[in-house]
Fold this sequence. Notes:
The longest helix has 18 residues, at 112-129. This protein has helices at residues 17-28, 40-49, 66-76, 91-100, 112-129, 133-139, 153-166, 182-191, 210-218, 235-238, 254-266, 292-297, 303-309, 326-340, 350-358, 364-378, 391-397, 411-425, 430-437, 441-450; strands at residues 9-13, 33-37, 54-58, 81-86, 104-107, 172-175, 200-204, 243-247, 268-269, 278-279, 283-288, 312-315, 347-348, 383-384. Helix 4 links the parallel strand 4 and strand 5. Strands 2-1-3-4-5 form a 5-stranded parallel beta sheet, sandwiched between helices. A 5-stranded parallel beta sheet has the order 7-8-11-6-12. A two-stranded antiparallel ribbon has the order 9-10. The chain folds into 4 domains: 5-139, Rossmann fold (3-Layer(aba) Sandwich); 153-317, Rossmann fold (3-Layer(aba) Sandwich), CATH 3.40.50.300; 320-397, Helicase, Ruva Protein, domain 3; 411-462. It is an alpha/beta fold. It is built from 20 helices and 14 strands.
Amino acid sequence: MTMDNSKIKILVVDDESGLCAGLQEGLRREGYHVDAANDVPAALEFARRNLYNLVISDVKMPGADGLELLAQIRAHSRDTLFILMTAYSTVTNAVEAMRLGAYDYLPKPIDLKRLRLQVQKALEYQAVVVENHELRSRLQQREEPNPLIGESESMQAVSRLIGEVAQSDVTVLIEGESGTGKEIAARLIHTQSPRKDKPFISVNCAAFAEQLLEAELFGHMKGAFTGATAQKPGRFQLADGGTLFLDEIGDLSPKGQGDLLRVLEDGAFRMVGGSELIRVNVRIIAATNKKLPEAVAEGRFREDLFYRLNVVPVVMPPLRERADDIPLLIERFFERFAARHKRGRKRMSPEALQLCQRFPWPGNVRQLRNAVERMVITSRAAVVDVAALPDYLREFDADLVTFTVRPGTPLAEVEKLLIRQTLLHVTSNRAAAAAALGISRRALQYKLKQYGLLDMPGPAEEK
């Protein structure tokens, strides 16, 4: 059943009525169904009447707090995700919430743009976890297309490997170009593992300066450095019992590499400014778009750390190597964005689809996703033809006249495509096209009628 964002139900809970109303309005603009409550009793009443995909709640509230709300709602709705909002003074509670199964937490004051991104990621994560039809119907959600779907041999191999490594605690290194779905793969490993009920915590190693990354990973004590106004746990502590995903590990500084290696070897660390040795039980999944063996050879990445991380490598294939999966991805993206933007259903013409399968997609699935969303918004026609494709696709095709045929395609469909391509790219003259195809003009005319191609462009004298 096709559903749009209005079928995604979100509950916002905060005792600050102004903030609560602001978040409600901001998320409603994204098309979600959003309810708001200013205390836990009101929130529980909403939860009694509705099944929510996501609850966004403050931790510190008068009376019962966000932790109690989390426990009560998840007691009868294990599929509902929680994002906690917290000031530094309550970050310890946020750590406990992550251990109880919260998806993530955001510090106050709330950045609405960041919140929207986290909501989208949470729903994408939920769509991956909720795989069977019964749960999808119960949650009343619209699934975000998974970049890992596909019938190509390479994606089937990745899916099998994910299923195999998920059952152990072995360290995994996910390699692949940007946009291939490395974080989705990491989350799938987590959700299929015995740690699935524990936190999945991610950190982008390229997003923090060297002096801040240590505090982000291991936490810091109050007063450890300028701006450290309160004690703050690191990602290792938040992930205790669960999985820590280290994205863009290839961009880790030399000092960061040494710090991480020590934790992997000893299983313990100290917070910045602290003296207590802290031990956690964390599974490590790392990801990179860099070629780490080359970085090791050039002295940019520690060889001992590389071997620690590369116990089981999972290589995400680029989209250009799984062109057979592109039609299915496009179909799912069309469904998703037509619902999100309240547009009519669309499909691609055979020529446009062939072009999409020929294009190398340097930005991989992420680039394809963005291209389809643009077409949903800008194209008025129900059938998206080559003329409606982004400029870079049409320019790529200007000097490349060919098309791809998937093994197993019916011969009639191949013949139809060949005739269309000949009339579009070789000659629109029926006699010349028939000669190029090695058939009579009369036979060509019969096939045009048979395949519904009589409206194909032709010379003026033939119209």
